[in-house]
Amino acid sequence: MVDRLANSEANTRRISIVENCFGAAGQPLTIPGRVLIGEGVLTKLCRKKPKARQFFLFNDILVYGNIVIQKKKYNKQHIIPLENVTIDSIQDEGDLRNGWLIKTPTKSFAVYAATATEKSEWMNHINKCVSDLLSKSGKTPSNEHAAVWVPDSEATVCMRCQKAKFTPVNRRHHCRKCGFVVCGPCSEKRFLLPSQSSKPVRICDFCYDLLSTGEMTACQSTRSDSYSQSPKSSLNDVSDDDDEEDSSD
């Protein structure tokens, strides 16, 4: 089915419409063999609060952006190669329902659909696209993914030293390796994580010690695998490093 659509006029026209909606600021999306599988609005858990984002699933990439005018204009385009994606379902918790994690080596985050049926359709289509891509390339699924950040509201004190209380002066920071909320003194070191940045990024002392000694497996226990187990999360307090272009801490 996908192969038949690849060269169809309808598919070319649909992709062209998406390109036009992102305007000059977006990257070209039309390439030979690319098919637009589906699109829709999902709630993405951004760093400060949940926000509606327009998502487009192609047979090789996942694209999303901010909604300026629905079905007419989007900005802040993000493109994720599907061959690097793994997804995990999130258990319903309070107001957070019908969600799943989108995990990549560069960034991992949670999204929520309006209904359970919509969630199932999105996850099935994403898994099918990833499976087809890996089958054609002969590559193995990615086993590396960035941590999903712990929401600020879940940590009143540093999650490493368990002593430093957070205040407007004593700011929260996030370890880029484990996603924990930590204080400044517990995260003064930087370490190069090539999948996330070309420059050394902030990590906590615990992860720094493990990375420095080569014990990366122990440090790989991240929040993204236990995200849905948090009893404190609510629709208004879950955070993720993204759309505000503010990934400083």
UniProtKB/TrEMBL annotation:
Protein's cellular compartments: Early endosome membrane; Endoplasmic reticulum
Topology of this chain in the membrane: Peripheral membrane protein
Regions of compositional bias (Polar residues) in chain numbering: 221-232
Residues covered by the FYVE-type domain: 152-212
Species the sequence originates in: Caloenas nicobarica
PANTHER family, A to Z: PLECKSTRIN HOMOLOGY DOMAIN-CONTAINING FAMILY F MEMBER 2, PLECKSTRIN HOMOLOGY DOMAIN-CONTAINING FAMILY F MEMBER 2-RELATED
A GO BP entry: endosome to lysosome transport
GO cellular component: early endosome membrane; endoplasmic reticulum
Protein name, per record: Pleckstrin homology domain-containing family F member 2
GO molecular function terms noted in the UniProt entry: phosphatidylinositol binding; zinc ion binding
Gene3D superfamilies per record: Pleckstrin-homology domain (PH domain)/Phosphotyrosine-binding domain (PTB), Zinc/RING finger domain, C3HC4 (zinc finger)
CDD domains per UniProt: FYVE_PKHF2, PH_Phafin2-like
Residue ranges crossing the lipid bilayer per the database entry: none
Function, as annotated: May play a role in early endosome fusion upstream of RAB5, hence regulating receptor trafficking and fluid-phase transport. Enhances cellular sensitivity to TNF-induced apoptosis.
Annotated spans, Disordered: 221-249
Compositional bias per record (Acidic residues), positions renumbered to this chain: 238-249
Keywords, comma-separated and alphabetical: Endoplasmic reticulum, Endosome, Membrane, Metal-binding, Protein transport, Transport, Zinc, Zinc-finger
Domain PH: 35-131
Pfam families: FYVE (PF01363), PH (PF00169)
Keyword Heme in record: no
